[in-house]
């Protein structure tokens, strides 16, 4: 049985210890489009040698940024073919600005396993501290496994963010490169769904798709740039649901509403009739 919720829920995954340098931050931020305006001093803050400012979304890749092999979906009570899996949602809360270099320790557990009928959703929660135990960030993520539902588990919540009934306060369009996924995979996600045309076709897509976490980072950076004066330290938390695929080379239309101490955001693909890319996006201000 690929999923056994009695074993999976509450299971702890192996603790990860890792270190990162400013060059890792620069690589990640290049992977989500930093540097597209190379004469803009605000843009170059993301790529400054030594002490680049760090987007909170760096937290989603740092533990595995040096990985060179495709990931496996193999946890206690969970064994799933990688071709069936896409990212469902991601949330990160930073407890202090992420330093440009450092070391961390992450502990992760499987928090929920939901049965959506034709699919399953596996939710992980993780806590990251420095090696002295000081909190750095917490995260919650889910993966959506097609064809793995029907095991009799709970369906789980279905929540959506209600957007204001008015024009957005900010709008911007961000271009991606045809090689964006090939660049982003250098940040440790070597899933062939994002690089191998034959694997992508077998998984049901006409071509390799952009990593969901790449889109996640691109939209966070866009919001920071246009709504927060390109100051990543103003972000406390950031969450999103992956609502559709993005293909490398497409553009993303990002719409942002101010809402008290947070920003509400949508991202869609204008090249495909504004097909949704991210939904239920909330950026919480520090």
Automatic annotation (TrEMBL):
Pfam families: MaoC_dehydratas, MFE-2_hydrat-2_N. Residues 163-261 form the MaoC-like domain. One of its GO terms (biological process) is fatty acid beta-oxidation. Residues 18-147 form the Peroxisomal multifunctional enzyme type 2-like N-terminal domain. InterPro entries: HotDog_dom_sf (IPR029069), MaoC-like_dom (IPR002539), MFE-2_N (IPR054357). GO terms for molecular function: (3S)-3-hydroxyacyl-CoA dehydrogenase (NAD+) activity; 17-beta-hydroxysteroid dehydrogenase (NAD+) activity; enoyl-CoA hydratase activity. Coiled coil: none annotated. Belongs to the enoyl-CoA hydratase/isomerase family. This is 3-alpha,7-alpha, 12-alpha-trihydroxy-5-beta-cholest-24-enoyl-CoA hydratase. It comes from Rhodococcus spelaei.
